[in-house]
Amino acid sequence: KKRLRYSERRDIASHKAVKRLLSIMEKKKTNLALSADLTTTDKLIKLVDEVGPHVCLVKTHVDIMSDFSYDGTGLRLKELAKKHNFMIMEDRKFSDIGNTCKLQYTSPLYSLSDWSDLVTCHGIAGPGTVNALSDVIPEGSGCVLVAEMSSRACLTSSEYKESVLRIARDFDNVIGLICQRKLSEREDILYMTPGVNIDKEGDRLGQQYHSPEEVIIRKESDIIIVGRGIYESADPVASAIQYKNRSYSAYTESITIPE
Ligand code: UP6
């Protein structure tokens, strides 16, 4: 089966956030997401401003930061997203009952809905998590469900993955999956894969890495998510360009080779 291009996927997709992300990917020729896991605002903003031109998405973990503030961090990220044309995903991995997730999402400490476009959610609590978020998530924003993890001996069994896919199908605000491969035939959602590194096979805490080619060509995912491979490198911009080029070439190769 021939792999569809971003432009074809964009036409199939119904959710605004999917259309927007695919347009960015096509325009900037990048399927790289930066996992900006830095713990201070100054470092985070500097990294994102430098690497921003090369990515379609910046992923954050606001709860690892020592000095997060809505004005100082959230709004500045939003400005950079506009300047460099990328989307923002807060990797909050919501996993509690619906009511608690709703309170967490709307907490004024972070005001996630004001500056992030996407948020990640686990499926462990069932459909209630995504259902509750659909009450509070702004139009044009969406949830990305964690269907499969990159870590060694993770508990995302095939049955679990199937159940997560079912939740994804049942809710319009689910716009993609965090997964290790393209987990379904659906072309109207995005498949995003963390656990990507060119130089390492893993870390000491269970992370497992694959190459951009493995993820994009063999596993047929759409977006690679790279953290330490970029921000721990001596030259983050040069590394980001390297990841971007390898990952985007893998995409262009896979749309030209008939399967
Ligand atoms: N992440 C994973 N694996 C998953 C889900 N999420 O690594 O299954 C997230 C981590 C981290 C990033 O929370 O922010 O992706 C990976 O970072 P790294 O490239 O530095 O390993």
UniProtKB/TrEMBL annotation:
This is Uridine 5'-monophosphate synthase. Substrate binds at D37, K59, S150, Q207, G227, R228. Keywords: Decarboxylase, Glycosyltransferase, Lyase, Multifunctional enzyme, Pyrimidine biosynthesis, Transferase. Residues 31-243 form the Orotidine 5'-phosphate decarboxylase domain. GO terms for biological process: 'de novo' pyrimidine nucleobase biosynthetic process; 'de novo' UMP biosynthetic process. In the N-terminal section; belongs to the purine/pyrimidine phosphoribosyltransferase family. Pathway: Pyrimidine metabolism; UMP biosynthesis via de novo pathway; UMP from orotate: step 1/2; Pyrimidine metabolism; UMP biosynthesis via de novo pathway; UMP from orotate: step 2/2. The active site is at D91, K93, D96. The chain holds residues 221 to 479 of 480 of the full protein. It comes from the Eukaryota. GO terms for molecular function: orotate phosphoribosyltransferase activity; orotidine-5'-phosphate decarboxylase activity. Its EC number is 2.4.2.10, 4.1.1.23.
